[in-house]
TrEMBL record:
Family to which this protein belongs: Belongs to the ComB family.
Signal peptide (residue range): none
Catalytic activity: (2R)-O-phospho-3-sulfolactate + H2O = (2R)-3-sulfolactate + phosphate
EC number(s) stated in the UniProt entry for this protein: 3.1.3.71
Database matches in InterPro entries: ComB-like (IPR005238), ComB-like_sf (IPR036702)
Keyword annotations: Hydrolase, Magnesium
Protein name: Probable 2-phosphosulfolactate phosphatase
PANTHER family hit by this protein: 2-PHOSPHOSULFOLACTATE PHOSPHATASE-RELATED
NCBIfam families with a match to the protein in the record: PRK00886.1-4 (NF002055)
Keyword RNA-binding recorded: no
Amino acid sequence: MKIDLIISADDISEVKTKGKTVVVIDMLRATSVITTALNNGAKKVIPFLTVEEALEYSKDNRKNFILGGERRAVKIEGFDLSNSPLEYVKELVNDKVVIMTTSNGTRAIKGCENAKNLLIGAMINAKAIAKRIIELDNDVVFVNAGTQGQFSMDDFICAGYMIKLLEENDNVDLTDVAFTAKHIYESHEDIQSFIVNARHYNIIKSLGLEEDLGYCMKKDILDIVPFYENGEIII
């Protein structure tokens, strides 16, 4: 199994993702939100690139949808929920369709539509993702959503953890960047000691969202694998 890694949404290219198993990671916080919402009973999550597209899609049947997302880490005006996974509780999302748009995560997902399999990963479901990758038995590309088109330390170490799990359970051939991500994780298994220096981590902390950070750094608390197909994310 060959394993590669793309460092941000701006670096996604068709030649790198076509025909591969792709895992999109936006640990802080979009892929953590998606995984949590589906685990708490949401029917599906539909990602959009823009606020306008999300509003247009939901306008005729608003009561059946939850609008969620952010711009610059802040809740979008007129939306039901922000990009905090802690808001997507069962009482709100069960049996609902979540319409979502974020600055980085949904853009990364939409950019990988040519993948053979497109999985949604985070720390909270990393072992489940690794297990599914092995079952799919295909070359893998981890796609870090990044932050505003730039490299993001949090997504990088999350990918490193998943790569470490794969190495423990399968024969892998790592690119240099994939090996580096794994090495970073092995040097910082507590996660926080590395990402405390990340710009995005500190933006979220400055907004008083420490509980979100604590939740998103938890490993393997959910055993589901969301996947993107025909414009929708389901399990």
